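Entry 14. Structure prediction run on the chain below.
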Amino acid sequence: MRETKWWAWHMIAGIVIFVLLGLHMLITHFDDILGWFNVLGPSHAIEWENVVARAQNIFFAVTYVILLIAALFHGFYGARTIICEMNIGVGARKFVDVLFWLVGLALLIVGTWAAIASMAIKG
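Output returned:
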């Protein structure tokens, strides 16, 4: 039952990644269609002024952190599942669990700090 719960979260994380990455692609790469978030207007999505304007928006900081959480969980849980399917011992499984938790938390802290720190950038 416990693995079923984690697998369900794995699927939910995949959906979150799909939605937020799709939104990112629309805003950044299809700005002629969806230029709402670009202060300089369509066709200028990757210019510094637009990047800074998006970085200072709380919506983008929050969605970046949510995307980071979903991507880290989805990736590490998927890798853990693959490793554990190789019938490794209980000790090795616990080591993988602890290693992935520590690395995942470290990456989450750094990524969250980057999202928050980018809000202070001045154009």
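The radius of gyration is 18 Å.
Filed with the rest of this week's runs.
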